[in-house]
């Protein structure tokens, strides 16, 4: 029996868009007023005369239950492209708050602040000038001292095999600084302020407890230098000899401010310059008062650095005699200075001892403070979640009481994840709800509109609908008529949004047919074809006159994309059956000359691309001149075979970081990067757009030139080998001074070139370039005397 096709308008009337759990609620919401549908221009549906028996409801029947798969667009329906980066609609509203700083007395505020963490109390100082004045006042100073020192530590003892608390140890007081008490608010600023005091842009996670500075990682990298570099380098030779003895140093590396280093220390460049200027002024005053020169004129920064390093190692020893010897060395060095310089040095050394005591106190208190802060943050997170849940519950109650949309819609609509809902603030009064109400209703209406398009955005095409554009327009007109399941008040919210979405709705594009790659063959036929072409490829390589010619020859995958070879390979009847081997071989012989000619063109293309890469990185030729180079340039005697064997013509492999001459790289590619098919990845090789075999970036060329210059090697000498550079350097290594983190250590020249190549490619992928590499020599390690077990 033939069934009548239901028109889209009738389908829209009988479909629920708001996920009602029962049909009765939808009817009640949509048909409360008999003239509501006529108001929007829709004729009422005629009641059917035939009353069929109600269908028995079968348990598990999918037609009676909502299926989440129905939310997706149907086949051939309209599709709305949503922007994932679309920002949610926000609204500003004012919440009346009470400033307790102006209402409560200071005694009450201090009692309340006693329950806060020191970092929380410090954050209050940034709210307003009033709060900053209160927090910094002398009245709050005892509270600051109590919060920074922490609670008393319980003292325990063992009694009857149990640990029992017998007393409480008072917390250790804050050490003095320059003979005066430390200002607690300044100490809190040092500990809890998150802004870099140098650049005032980046965040600081932990202060430097040795320098008493808040510096970000970038500023530490730029301003901290090792004391060994100050003593050995030529940059700081003009400093006063006593500079390193008076300036503050830190054992914390620039990028690791948690764990100190016992062997090295760093100083700030600015502190070096300031201390040196002060010492020079004192030196000038002493020279003006005395006609004789002092002993420090014979000293240098390098000698002082060596003496201080030796004294540091002695004081670090386990023997008391060694420690006394280290202190005596420092005292002898101090006695060599002029009177004013000596007095200044002794004053700074005394201040260093106080700095060390305060730094140890910060180190001991920092871990308990952070542990307490983590516990307070966890409690705050729980409290915020409770406030958010209470806010969501209150908003849901408002939405249900107003009844514009059914309660079942709230279960699926994404209103609860909106930022205005997720705020950790209670709905204290009706002002907040009135402010956010329109935004939330628009979010729900948008969800209902998208559901309408997803469920009824398709229309069965009839004989009269010959034009797709007319059919789509008629469908959009039908969707703008109020469905039965949406109330009149809800439709006022849904219709404007639905009209806006339908402007951007369109028919889904048909997926593009996959490109056919070669003839459609069975697996056995494909294996026969590949075996035949692999055999022909090996025979072609055997005919080449030299071993070097095999390296220049294309790999198997590149061989298959040669025009003549590809034409034969794409032939669905060629070399697919072993019984036709002789006939296929004869056909191959007819095209052999063309194949060898194309292999020769591949060799020229490889040499030309390598020449362009070398000239672009090692000469000042413009990009236009290099692009204009053709195969004729290879006939120039200056670019013969010896040119590609020079040290200045070494290149990198395009698929890895291997570095060497052109022939060595091509050999490496045949051995370690064999190409078994013309599909090395997602992109197919073609004869018109071959992949480059080698590359040479400007950063690698600069680093390679610097290494050759340090080794005193002629870069233009042909037949250069890697062993020549290794012998020239001997036991010396090289280092990349201005390289990224983890590359500044001493290493072999080959490892350094690979590191430069790796980081240069990573920078190019970020649309960036590296600074010109600064390469220096590193002398071999001096053999150290081994220590015995008991030493």
Description:
By secondary structure, this protein is mainly α. Among the domains are: 71-83 and 403-509, no CATH class; 215-375, no CATH class; 516-634 and 671-691, no CATH class. It has 30 helices and 11 strands. The strands form 4 sheets. A 3-stranded antiparallel β-sheet has the order 3-5-4. β1 (153-159) and β2 form a beta hairpin. α12 (269-289) packs antiparallel against α15, α13 (301-315) packs antiparallel against α14 (320-335) and α17 (430-456) packs across α19. It is flat and about 105 Å long. It starts with 7 loop residues before the first helix and ends in a 13-residue tail after the last strand. The relative contact order is 0.07. The model is unreliable at 1-76, 460-466 and 783-791 (pLDDT under 50).
Structure in a nutshell:
It comes from Rhodotorula toruloides (Yeast). By secondary structure, the chain is mainly alpha-helical. It is built from 30 helices and eleven strands.
Topology:
Elements (H helix, E strand, L loop, with lengths): L7 H7 L8 H8 L5 H4 L66 H8 L4 H7 L4 H8 L4 H9 L3 E7 L2 E8 L14 H9 L24 H7 E3 H6 L10 H4 L2 E2 L15 E3 H21 L11 H15 L4 H16 L3 H64 L4 H6 L17 H27 L11 H12 L8 H17 L18 H21 L3 H6 L3 H5 L2 H7 L11 H10 L1 H27 L4 H5 L23 E3 L5 E2 L1 H11 L21 E2 L2 H13 L11 H8 L3 E4 L9 E2 L1 H17 L9 E4 L13
Helix pairs in contact: 12-15, 13-14, 17-19, 28-30
InterPro entries: F-box-like_dom_sf, F-box_dom
Protein name: BY PROTMAP: gi|472583945|gb|EMS21561.1| F-box domain, cyclin-like domain containing protein [Rhodosporidium toruloides NP11] gi|647400416|emb|CDR45847.1| RHTO0S11e05556g1_1 [Rhodosporidium toruloides]
């Amino acid at each position: 029996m033939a069934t009548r096709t239901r028109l889209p308008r009738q389908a829209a009337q009988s479909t629920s868009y708001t996920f009602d759990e029962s049909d009765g609620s939808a009817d009640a919401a949509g048909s409360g007023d008999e003239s509501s549908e006529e108001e929007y221009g829709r004729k009422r549906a005629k009641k059917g005369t035939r009353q069929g028996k109600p269908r028995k409801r079968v348990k598990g029947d999918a037609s009676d239950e909502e299926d989440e798969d129905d939310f997706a667009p149907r086949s051939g329906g309209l599709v709305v492209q949503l922007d994932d980066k679309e920002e949610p609609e926000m609204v500003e509203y004012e919440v009346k708050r009470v400033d307790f700083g102006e209402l409560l007395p200071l005694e009450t505020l201090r009692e309340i602040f006693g329950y806060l963490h020191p970092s929380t109390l410090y954050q209050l100082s940034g709210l307003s000038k009033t709060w900053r004045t209160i927090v910094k006042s002398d009245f709050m100073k005892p509270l600051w001292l109590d919060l920074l020192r922490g609670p008393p530590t319980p003292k325990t003892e063992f009694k009857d095999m149990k640990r029992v608390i017998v007393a409480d140890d008072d917390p250790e007081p804050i050490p003095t600084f320059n003979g005066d008490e430390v200002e607690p608010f300044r100490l809190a600023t040092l500990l809890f302020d998150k802004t870099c005091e140098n650049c005032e842009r980046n965040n600081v996670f932990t202060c430097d407890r040795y320098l008493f500075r808040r510096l970000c990682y970038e500023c530490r990298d730029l301003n901290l230098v090792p004391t060994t570099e100050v003593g050995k380098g030529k940059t700081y030779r003009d400093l006063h000899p006593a500079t390193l003895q008076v300036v503050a140093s830190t054992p914390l590396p620039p990028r690791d401010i948690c764990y100190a280093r016992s062997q090295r220390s760093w100083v700030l460049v600015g502190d070096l310059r300031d201390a040196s200027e002060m010492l020079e002024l004192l030196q000038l005053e002493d020279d003006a008062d005395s006609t004789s020169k002092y002993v420090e004129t014979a000293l240098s920064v390098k000698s002082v650095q060596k003496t201080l390093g030796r004294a540091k190692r002695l004081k670090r020893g386990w023997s008391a005699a060694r420690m006394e010897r280290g202190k005596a060395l420092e005292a002898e060095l101090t006695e060599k200075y002029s009177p004013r310089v000596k007095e200044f040095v002794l004053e700074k050394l005394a201040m260093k001892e106080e700095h060390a005591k305060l730094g140890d106190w910060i180190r001991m208190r920092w871990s308990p403070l952070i542990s307490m802060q983590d516990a307070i943050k966890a409690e705050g997170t729980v409290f915020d979640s409770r406030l958010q849940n209470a806010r969501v519950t209150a908003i849901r109650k408002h939405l249900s009481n107003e009844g514009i949309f059914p309660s079942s819609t709230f279960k699926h609509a994404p209103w609860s994840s909106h930022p205005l809902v997720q705020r950790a603030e209670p709905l204290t009064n009706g002002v907040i709800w009135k402010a956010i109400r329109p935004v939330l209703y628009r979010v729900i209406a948008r969800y209902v509109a998208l559901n309408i398009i997803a469920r009824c955005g398709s229309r069965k095409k009839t004989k009269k609908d010959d034009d797709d554009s007319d059919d789509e327009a008629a469908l959009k007109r039908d969707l703008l008529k109020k469905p039965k399941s949406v109330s009149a008040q809800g439709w006022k919210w849904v219709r404007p949004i639905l009209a806006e979405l339908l402007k951007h709705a369109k028919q889904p594009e048909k997926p593009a047919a996959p490109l056919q790659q070669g003839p459609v063959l069975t697996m056995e036929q494909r294996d026969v074809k590949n075996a035949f072409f692999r055999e022909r490829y090996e025979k072609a390589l055997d005919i080449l006159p030299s071993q070097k010619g095999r390296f220049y020859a294309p790999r198997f995958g590149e061989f298959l994309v040669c025009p003549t070879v590809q034409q034969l390979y794409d032939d669905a009847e060629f070399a697919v059956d072993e019984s036709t081997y002789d006939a296929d071989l004869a056909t191959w012989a007819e095209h052999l000359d063309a194949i060898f000619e194309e292999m020769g063109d591949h060799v020229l293309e490889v040499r030309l691309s390598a020449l362009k890469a070398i000239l672009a990185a090692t000469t000042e030729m413009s990009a236009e001149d290099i692009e204009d180079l053709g195969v004729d340039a290879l006939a120039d005697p200056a670019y013969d075979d010896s040119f590609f064997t020079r040290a200045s013509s070494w290149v990198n492999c395009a698929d890895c970081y291997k570095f060497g001459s052109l022939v060595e790289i091509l050999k490496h590619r045949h051995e370690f990067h064999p190409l078994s098919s013309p599909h090395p990845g997602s992109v197919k090789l073609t004869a018109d757009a071959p992949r480059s075999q080698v590359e040479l970036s400007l950063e690698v060329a600069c680093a390679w030139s610097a290494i050759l210059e340090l080794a005193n090697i002629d870069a233009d000498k042909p037949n250069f080998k890697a062993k020549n550079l290794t012998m020239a350097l001997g036991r010396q290594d090289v280092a990349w001074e201005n390289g990224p983190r983890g590359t500044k250590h001493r290493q072999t020249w080959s490892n350094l070139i690979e590191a430069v190549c790796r980081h240069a490619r990573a920078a190019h992928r970020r649309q960036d370039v590296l600074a010109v590499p600064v390469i220096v020599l590193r002398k071999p390690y001096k053999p150290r005397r081994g220590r015995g077990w008991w030493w």
